């Protein structure tokens, strides 16, 4: 339909031939109006250049592949204007890019060499240059020595959306001439068609690639904008609104939405002012890319600007809220040579900022390498497992009232052929990251049962062994079955208990509760490990099937020097007792700590005061000397 209407217009336009190429008279005589004075000089960028470039980026057209719709409209322009050259030219920062072209051999030309940068400035319907020889700085061979010379130019600015001109639909000829009024109208009409086409596509993309809440690009749109912009260098930054979650729980999600929208608007303004790309990744998380900006300059100026803008209060209904932020920053291509890499680097910087509770952190190779070190360690850990280099050590748990051993905790060690005993802090995180923890955990379980049976064979009162269970093990479908099989095969009911941390449970509480319930049905008690370090919430203990709480050693160790810590320990003990749970204090190193714990009614203690973790044989000797109570 569109095409038929245009085809008719084109026919009409080319039917009424103008004072044509063949009948040219000297231009000085033909040109009634004087040349526009600005053409004597190469063009200055428009006043709203940043906004205009942002608009151009939003169209997402720069450096995209062939496009049949645009090609068709450009061919129609050439036909209607009887011009050997025509193009859809987008005026970017430093160049004009020929999205579709007829008779023009090159894809782009320097912005300052072409006439399109002038055409986008015109307040008229179109810019017509009847003879380019009269423009002193213009080189008719700007498209190369073998191209047709450009002696005539007529370009209609493509005013898309908000009215800023992103480029032109232009026709050119190798001889001086003018367009007829009919040709002008047709060229103008075709330009409007190009605009509608581009705008329609943009709107479609907005529908599919824009985050509805803020109107910002989503990740995939951000990615394609980055691809189109092809920056040589720059800075990527994640911005996280730190308390969106809390604001949402306290005031409702609509208040949080309003805050996110206002933050997005502030980020958009900063981005537009600096020619940056901005997108929203998830709820309170935004990504920005500042092309051409050096990391140091970003940290010194832009980061402060961003943080200050975001620190201003947000108005949501009656409320006036503030929301602190975290920034994670990485440099392109220094910290990552592709968008994915640099965004990963910015993400690891953001994690660093969160961990350090700082507003901003820059990418730090040594920190980021931790993850890859884990994966480099994996083959060695597998080999260690195959060679039986993981061994269990056992640390006694003491009944504070009687002083007797009431259990032991199994603590894994790596008997490294060269390095000797390697502590778990050096490899347990790697086991968890790589998923190897499940296999090593199964191995620890078998060893524990074997040791338990051995102590019994030696005639000792074997204490219950507590196994540390990692989050990945809890998630495993097979975990409970393996536990049941191992206990059944070893004939050692009553030999085991498990310890899990709060953070391992909190991810999927309902599933965790179900797993723990089944574990307890096997006669295996459950303890919460490192209590106080994670979510520090006793509230959820009520809903979990557990038997014991282990107060983290950092509280225990400060309890006799700092009254605040003493209060925490006291409250933990009384609350746990109210819930019918036993309390174990970890890391007891001094007699003063032990006597305070006794005073506060703590049930058991574990720590260097009583014994460091011991090998199987060492523990057997200790059991001989000081029998465990059953
Ligand atoms: P955890 O479960 O909190 O283990 C207690 C840690 O405190 C042990 O460190 C133990 O040696 C140490 N410790 C005991 N008494 C004292 C004391 O009086 N003072 C001080 N400062 N420390 C004391 P270890 O053996 O290095 O284990 C570190 C962590 O590694 C464990 O913390 C646990 O999270 C993990 N881990 C150890 N073995 C295993 C295992 O078999 N499986 C899993 N998933 N994790 C394990
Ligand atoms: Ca433990
Ligand atoms: Ca612990």
From TrEMBL:
Source taxon at top rank: Bacteria
InterPro entries: Cyclic-di-GMP_PDE-like, EAL_dom, EAL_sf, GAF, GAF-like_dom_sf, GGDEF_dom, Nucleotide_cyclase, Rev_trsase/Diguanyl_cyclase
Positions of the GGDEF domain: 232-365
Residue ranges of every copy of the EAL domain listed in the record: 374-627
PROSITE patterns associated with the record: EAL (PS50883), GGDEF (PS50887)
Transmembrane stretches, start-end: none
GO molecular function, one term: cyclic-guanylate-specific phosphodiesterase activity
Pfam family, one: GGDEF
CDD domains: EAL
SUPFAM superfamilies: EAL domain-like, GAF domain-like, Nucleotide cyclase
UniProt xrefs under SMART domains: EAL, GAF, GGDEF
PANTHER family to which the protein is assigned, alphabetical: CYCLIC DI-GMP PHOSPHODIESTERASE PDED-RELATED (PTHR33121:SF79), CYCLIC DI-GMP PHOSPHODIESTERASE PDEF (PTHR33121)
Record-given protein name: Signal transduction protein: sensor, GAF domain regulator, GGDEF/EAL domains-like protein
Organism: Ramlibacter tataouinensis (strain ATCC BAA-407 / DSM 14655 / LMG 21543 / TTB310)
């Amino acid at each position: 339909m569109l095409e038929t209407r245009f085809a008719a217009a084109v026919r009409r336009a080319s039917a009424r031939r103008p004072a044509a190429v063949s009948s040219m008279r000297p231009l000085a005589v033909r040109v009634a109006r004087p040349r526009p004075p600005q053409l004597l000089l190469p063009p200055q960028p428009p006043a709203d250049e940043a906004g205009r470039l942002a608009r151009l980026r939003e169209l997402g057209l720069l450096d995209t592949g062939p496009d049949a719709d645009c090609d068709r409209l450009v061919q129609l322009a050439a036909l209607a204007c009887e011009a050997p050259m025509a193009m859809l030219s987008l005026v970017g920062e430093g160049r004009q890019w020929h999205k579709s072209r007829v008779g023009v051999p090159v894809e782009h030309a320097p912005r300052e060499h072409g006439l399109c940068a002038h055409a986008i400035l015109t307040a008229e319907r179109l810019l017509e240059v009847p003879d380019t020889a009269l423009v002193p700085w213009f080189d008719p061979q700007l498209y190369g020595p073998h191209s047709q010379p450009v002696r005539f130019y007529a370009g209609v600015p493509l005013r898309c959306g908000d009215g800023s001109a992103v480029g032109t639909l232009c026709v050119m000829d190798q001889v001086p001439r003018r367009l007829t009024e009919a040709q002008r109208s047709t060229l103008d009409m075709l330009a409007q068609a190009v605009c509608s086409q581009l705008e329609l596509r943009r709107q479609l993309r907005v529908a599919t690639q824009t985050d509805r809440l803020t109107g910002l690009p989503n990740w995939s749109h951000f990615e394609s904008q980055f691809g189109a912009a092809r920056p040589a260098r720059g800075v990527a930054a994640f911005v996280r609104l730190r308390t969106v979650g809390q604001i949402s729980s306290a005031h409702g999600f609509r208040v949080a939405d309003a805050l996110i929208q206002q933050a997005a608007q502030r980020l958009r303004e900063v981005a537009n002012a600096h020619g940056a790309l901005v997108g929203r990744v998830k709820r309170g998380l935004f990504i920005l890319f500042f092309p051409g900006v050096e990391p140091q300059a970003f940290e010194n100026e832009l980061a402060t600007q961003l943080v200050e803008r975001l620190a201003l209060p947000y108005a949501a209904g009656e409320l006036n809220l503030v929301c602190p932020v975290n920034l994670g920053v990485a440099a392109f291509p220094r910290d990552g040579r592709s968008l994915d890499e640099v965004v990963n680097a910015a993400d690891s910087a953001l994690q660093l900022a969160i961990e350090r509770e700082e507003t901003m952190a820059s990418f730090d190779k040594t920190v980021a390498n931790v993850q890859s070190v884990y994966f480099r360690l994996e083959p060695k850990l597998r080999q260690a497992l195959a060679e039986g280099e993981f061994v269990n050590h056992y640390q006694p748990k003491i009944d504070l009232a009687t002083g007797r051993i009431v259990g032991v905790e199994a603590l894994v060690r790596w008997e490294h052929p060269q390095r000797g005993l390697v502590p778990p802090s050096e490899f347990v995180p790697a086991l968890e990251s790589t998923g190897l923890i499940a296999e090593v955990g199964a191995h620890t379980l078998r060893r524990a049962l074997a040791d338990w049976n051995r102590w019994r064979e030696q005639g000792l009162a074997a204490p219950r062994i507590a196994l540390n269970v990692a989050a990945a093990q809890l998630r495993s479908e097979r975990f409970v079955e393996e536990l049941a099989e191992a206990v059944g095969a070893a004939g050692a009911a009553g030999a085991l208990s498990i310890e899990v941390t709060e953070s391992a449970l909190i991810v999927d509480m309902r599933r965790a509760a179900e797993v723990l319930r089944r574990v307890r049905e096997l006669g295996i008690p459950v303890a919460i490990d490192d209590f106080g370090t994670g979510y520090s919430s006793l509230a959820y203990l009520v809903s979990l099937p557990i038997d014991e709480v282990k107060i983290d050693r950092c509280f225990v160790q400060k309890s006799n020097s700092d009254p605040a810590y003493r209060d925490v320990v006291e409250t933990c003990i009384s609350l746990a007792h109210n819930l019918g749970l036993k309390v174990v204090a970890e890391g007891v190193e001094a007699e003063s700590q032990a006597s305070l714990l006794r005073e506060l009614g703590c049930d058991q203690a574990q720590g260097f005061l009583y014994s460091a973790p011991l090998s199987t044989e060492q523990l057997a000797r200790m059991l001989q000397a000081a029998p465990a109570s059953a």
